[in-house]
Design a protein that fits this description.
The protein has seven helices and no strands. The protein is mostly helical. The longest helix is centred in the first third of the chain and has 34 residues, at 3-36.
């Protein structure tokens, strides 16, 4: 076997492994958000209806082998769950950050309900809600700054460069 053929086979194997790992990550993240979303848990059928995709597509995406999801499906899923970026399903850092924000939101909702109940018997409101809101907003601002910094050196697509700087 030639060296070129061996290198090509190794490259293909590495690519196949990366695809399999990414499908597994998407499956894990999809199951996680379905089960832990502040407005959930969602059944496959309910999330499929909410996102406008088939239940079969979601079930396949959550399976061990996964499926070749389209970008359209990932965008629909993220949007239907109130997640601004489909990178949630692809990037560990985005996944962790969004989950922190959703947990803070869930806690704020819980605290607000408790606060309303406690205000009927206690004249002073709880202060933890303000602290948690501050943490949520700080997390959002930090995530935006990290995204900006990571895009800082990224070249602009031709149409964006033309729009910003003029030219042919």
């Amino acid at each position: 076997m030639s060296e070129h053929h061996t290198t090509g086979a190794n490259t293909q194997r590495a690519l196949d492994d990366h695809v399999h790992t990414t499908k597994t990550d998407i499956a894990v993240r999809l199951r996680h958000i379905r089960q832990h979303h502040p407005e959930g848990p969602f059944s496959l059928a309910k999330l499929a209806k909410l996102a406008g995709v088939s239940k079969r597509t979601l079930a396949s995406a959550e399976s061990a082998e996964g499926t070749n999801l389209t970008i359209e499906t990932l965008v629909k899923l993220a949007h239907s769950l109130g997640i601004q970026s489909c990178a949630y399903f692809l990037d560990e850092q985005v996944f962790q950050q969004v989950n922190k924000e959703l947990e803070a939101l869930k806690e704020l909702r819980r605290q607000n309900l408790q606060g309303v109940a406690l205000r009927t018997s206690h004249p002073t409101p709880l202060h933890t809600t303000t602290d948690q809101l501050e943490q949520l907003l700080t997390g959002i601002i930090d995530a935006a700054a990290q995204a900006r910094d990571s895009l800082h050196g990224t070249p602009l697509p031709d149409d964006e460069a033309q729009r910003r700087y003029g030219g042919p």
